[in-house]
Specification:
This protein is of the alpha+beta class. It is built from 4 helices and 7 strands; from the N terminus they run βααββββαββα. The strands form 2 sheets. Strands 1-2-3-4 form a 4-stranded antiparallel sheet. Strands 5-6-7 form a 3-stranded antiparallel sheet.
């Protein structure tokens, strides 16, 4: 299972990027090309933030990869997981995203802004039971 941060956390940036060209066209039409470039930059930054982080959960391990050009990979065995919990804000519950915290014997792993964290917790608990 491959997990990336949810786009829902960046929803404000996508909405703002959509509104800027409309307002620019109404207020100052000659600024439309600049506003389109600015909007494209906002969307590109939001997608870059999302694309540079990836979590891979398989039957034996949890892998956290960061970076696009320079990659960093951290792997933890499933049997080392001690506790799994997740947090969702009010907006997170509405848009179905949240943060997942996995306590291990070593360094804790935090999966930030992931979609449907409750389902991932259940899947991790199932994998942990299978590996015991």
């Amino acid at each position: 299972m491959i997990i990336r941060p949810s786009r829902m956390k960046q929803l404000d940036k996508y909405a703002f990027a959509g509104v800027i060209p409309l307002v620019a066209d109404l207020v100052f039409p000659i600024a439309l090309p600049v506003s389109l470039l600015f909007s494209a930059g906002l969307v590109a930054k939001a997608e870059y933030t999302r694309a540079r982080e990836k979590y891979i959960i398989n039957n034996n391990e949890i892998t956290h990869e960061t970076g696009i050009l320079k990659k960093t990979k951290t792997t933890t065995d499933i049997y080392r997981v001690a506790q799994i919990s997740f947090e969702q804000s009010f907006i997170g519950r509405l848009l179905k995203y949240g943060d997942l915290k996995i306590e291990t014997w070593g360094t804790p792993i935090e999966l930030k802004n992931i979609s449907k964290p409750g389902l991932i917790v259940e899947r991790l608990k199932e994998l942990k039971r299978m590996n015991e």
